[in-house]
Design goal:
By secondary structure, the chain is α+β, with helices and mostly antiparallel strands. It has helices at residues 12-22, 63-74, 112-115, 119-134, 155-164, 171-183, 230-233, 237-247, 251-272, 277-292; strands at 31-34, 41-46, 50-55, 85-89, 99-103, 108-109, 192-194, 203-206, 209-213, 220-222. It contains ten helices and ten strands. Strand 8 (203-206) and strand 9 form a beta hairpin. Helix 5 runs antiparallel to helix 6 (171-183) and helix 5 crosses helix 9 (251-272). The longest helix has 22 residues, at 251-272. The model has no long low-confidence stretch (mean pLDDT 94).
């Protein structure tokens, strides 16, 4: 039986046709593929001022509309730059999903080598999360697409991943961490905003300084513990302590955050490490740091 790949083929020709037919004002702007672009989207730079992001798979298809609705509202309240959506394109020419056009954000992807030991950067990231969490959710009438995923929903896949990589990492330590994270008291306060994919690859630097946070496809409201993943993808022990103090995180939320770092690190490692040495190194660090705490 032949398995059909559900992911559409995205080419420069396809993107050119989508842009030119739906937004003829940009038809003369050059398209440049950006690599690497992550697992959720194919990204093209459009001229000097814009980017085009097309979902690679069905799991990312609601992100364009969500970012268009919420990022302009959040941006004035946040201490770092975030993407500025311009338009949402419609399916066409065999491409099945909506896609996004946003303003180009200058910067380089952050690295552990440049920012990992900086307590000042850690505090700045804590300030960003505090500002995000303080944006009022009480007046929200429509919360479609904003519900967070429960840590418990990842139990089966996480235990399977632990078994799969038990010869690479300490299976007993991973299981102990995961069990403790699952049994930690849950979020018992009003729901707050979270980024949802807050890791090193979604931070931009400019002139050596932290400049922007990107990729809000996982934006939602609920338990903010998932955003503590940044403490393990970017920070060292010293900067992590500064981050935690500035954020004012209680023990239970911190433990759930370690669980999120473990489960997302394992997912990425088992999915991509065998074919991508960069991801292998990044996720190995994430898992190891989560075990350290």
């Amino acid at each position: 039986m032949t398995t059909v790949d559900p992911r559409p083929t995205i080419t420069a020709e396809l993107v050119r046709r989508l842009v030119d037919t739906q937004y003829p004002q940009w038809a003369g702007l050059p398209l440049t593929l950006l690599e690497p672009a992550g697992s959720d989207h194919v990204i093209y730079r459009l001229g000097e001022q814009l980017t085009v992001r097309l979902p690679r798979h069905a799991g990312a298809i609601g992100q364009a509309a969500k970012e268009l609705e919420w990022l302009p509202k959040l941006a004035p309240h946040l201490p770092l730059a975030i993407p500025a959506p311009v338009a949402v394109g419609e399916p066409g020419f065999g491409y099945p999903w909506r896609w996004a056009v946003s303003r180009w954000l200058e910067g380089e992807v952050a690295t552990v080598e440049t920012l990992g030991d900086s307590s000042a950067v850690a505090v700045r990231l804590a300030e960003f999360l505090v500002a995000l969490q303080q944006y009022d959710v009480r007046a929200l009438r429509n919360r479609d697409g904003l519900a967070g995923q429960a840590l418990e929903s990842r139990d089966r896949s996480t235990r399977a991943a632990i078994a799969k990589v038990g010869d690479v990492f300490d299976a007993t330590a991973m299981t102990d961490l995961w069990d403790t994270a699952l049994t930690a008291p849950g979020w018992d306060r009003p729901p707050v905003w979270f980024h949802g994919d807050f890791h090193t690859g979604n931070l931009l630097t400019l002139d050596g300084r932290l400049h922007a946070v990107i990729d809000f496809g996982g934006l939602g409201i609920g338990d903010p513990a998932c955003d503590l993943t940044i403490a393990y993808t970017l920070m060292s022990a010293g900067s992590r302590a500064a981050f935690r103090e500035a954020l004012g995180v209680d023990d239970a939320t911190w433990m759930r955050g370690r669980g999120w770092a473990l489960t997302t690190g394992l997912n990425a490692y088992t999915s991509y490490a065998a074919v991508n040495p960069v991801i292998a190194a990044q996720t190995s660090r994430q898992i190891t740091e989560a075990l350290i705490g």
